[in-house]
Amino acid sequence: MVGSAGGTAVILRGHSVEWIGTRAGADRSEVHAASASGALTGMLTEPAAAGAVPGVIQDSRWLPYDVLADGAVHRLPEHFIPVGVNDAGQVAGLWWNEREGTRGAIWQAGKPVVVMQLGPDDPYPPFFPTAINNLGEVVGSLEHSSLAAVWSGGRLRELNFEAQVEGSGIHRRGVSMNDRGEVIGSRNGRPVVWTQNRVVELPLPPGATWGQARAINNLGQVVGSATVEERVPDRGPVMQAVLWENGAVRVLRPPRRAFDCTAHAINDAGAVLGACRMHPPGAPDGEDAVPFEVFLVWENGVARPLCTAFGPGSPNLDPRACDPASYAGTLREPGPGMTPVPDPPRR
């Protein structure tokens, strides 16, 4: 698992923590994505200069993103924001430049940045990537249209969910893709898998009204979450972590006193990474009880806690990926001063 602790990037391997040092002048570091081979991509911040406005985040400014691949640290181009990295060190992300504006792009050391569009007469709107597999194929969505699409072999193709799935849904997005080219996504609140030119809608657990697929491994196992209406009066819906395999859905059993669980990643060994909320031991389960968040790995159906974050405003885990040797995710600390990095102004 990769993330940050105390403002410094860390990686958890075999349940022991390694620290990833910060560059001189930086006041915090974060890791945003990891591949099974250990390629990492992330960012640093440093104190903002007086009067600095663009990219301000809690009085710090974003520095260019870095990539750690093959034991070397590479600097990504200016205005390149990564979303995923594969074993070859290829990084998919969003890149702003004066000619194309903000576009989906692929970076690899020693090679020109590949902008994922067909050319100046490209009929598609900008492509926003979400993940890259080890074949260099990228899945994402088209801007303003909520249409899932895949970049493969120098071509951008739309995943035509509506023609394959009964109904007239208009909102669909690609989330992740494995090395077999199977794509998971969502369509009007229902999880789907696109494979071999057809789309399969994944079933929901009994009582569930909404679901989301978040990750798929190379065996075709899918994990995500489902929302179930709480059977206790005056309580809202609860979230369940779920696993889809061979067309069937299974709820991942949470630890005792845990609730609102989500599954975010699964590796080829079947280990699942996720998180649950939990009431402290001995505390009442009522509204006055302040739950904390526990981060889990499910292996062979058994949940094992990794770490906890107590109370509102404490660090939250947003896991992105996991591999057989280490579990990858991102610790992020939301706060009122945290804002997205804006696009650079056009000249």
Short description:
Residues 313-347 are annotated as: Disordered. This protein has 347 residues and is mainly beta. It contains 1 helix and 33 strands.
Topology at a glance:
Blueprint: E1 2-5, E2 8-13, E3 16-19, E4 28-34, E5 40-47, E6 56-57, E7 60-62, E8 66-69, E9 72-75, E10 80-85, E11 91-97, E12 101-107, E13 114-115, E14 127-132, E15 138-142, E16 147-152, E17 155-158, H1 161-164, E18 172-177, E19 183-187, E20 190-195, E21 198-201, E22 208-216, E23 222-228, E24 238-245, E25 248-251, E26 258-266, E27 272-278, E28 292-299, E29 302-309, E30 316-317, E31 321-322, E32 327-328, E33 331-332
Antiparallel strand pairs: 1-2, 2-3, 4-5, 5-7, 5-8, 6-7, 8-9, 10-11, 11-12, 12-13, 14-15, 15-16, 16-17, 18-19, 19-20, 20-21, 22-23, 23-24, 24-25, 26-27, 27-28, 28-29, 30-33, 31-32
User: Can you give the mean pLDDT?
Assistant: 70
Based on DSSP secondary structure assignment, what is the total number of beta strands? 33
Assembly state (oligomeric): single chain
- Unreliable stretches covering 5 or more consecutive residues: 1-27, 48-62, 163-171, 309-347
User: What is the count of DSSP helices, taking H or I runs of 4+ residues?
Assistant: 1
Q: How many angstroms does the end-to-end distance come to? A: 40 Å
What percent of residues adopt helix (DSSP H or I)? under 10%
Beta content: over 45%
Secondary-structure-derived class: mainly beta
Q: Name the overall outline.
A: globular
Radius of gyration: 20 Å
Largest sheet: 6 strands, antiparallel
